[in-house]
Structures are given as structure tokens and as C-alpha cells.
Design brief:
Layout (H helix, E strand, L loop, with lengths): L1 H5 L3 H26 L3 H24 L3 H20 L16
Helix pairs in contact: 2-3, 2-4
Amino acid sequence: MIEDFASIQPLLALGVIASTAATDAVYVLFTAAVSSRRRVSAASWSAVWYLLSSFAVITYTKHWTYVLFAALGSWLGAYASMTLLHKSPAPVHAPLSRPLD
């Protein structure tokens, strides 16, 4: 098992992280488009999603240890895209009520 980790190529591992991060970010955008019922946008994001995921899948089916890098990239991509899509609601300034004496 240690031999499996010793044979990891750092640039390929970074490529898997980047491709799965991008894949998950695109998946979040795809889901947002589906939720908004935007057909062209959803179909376009879906196509990009499959193109990006194919790199990681091809890589880690040849060498199982790259699945760990795919998981890391997946987490990073979902977190980043949710952070970018997150819109904090505007603060609501309700008038302060005064207690009745």
C-alpha cells in the first residue's frame, strides 16, 4: 500500500484536485440552473460537468489513490461555489419597541 502512495505524481494529483473542484463547482451551478428552471443554462452546465469529471475518473480508475485527491477537490469545489453563490440577506432594521410602563 505504501508503494501506491510513493508512485503518486504530484502534478497529476493537483490536476485531479483542480478538475474535481471545478466539477463540483459546475455541479452547484447546474443544480441552481435546474432549480431556476433555466433549460439552456442547465443543459450547458451539465455538458461541462461531464467533460470535467471525465479527467478525474480516467485518472483514478487507473490508480486508486487519486480518489483521495478527487475527494479533496470535490470538497473544495463545492465549498468555494457555495461561498460564491451565498448571498447574505440585507440586515433588517426593525424599530425597537419600548416596553409599556
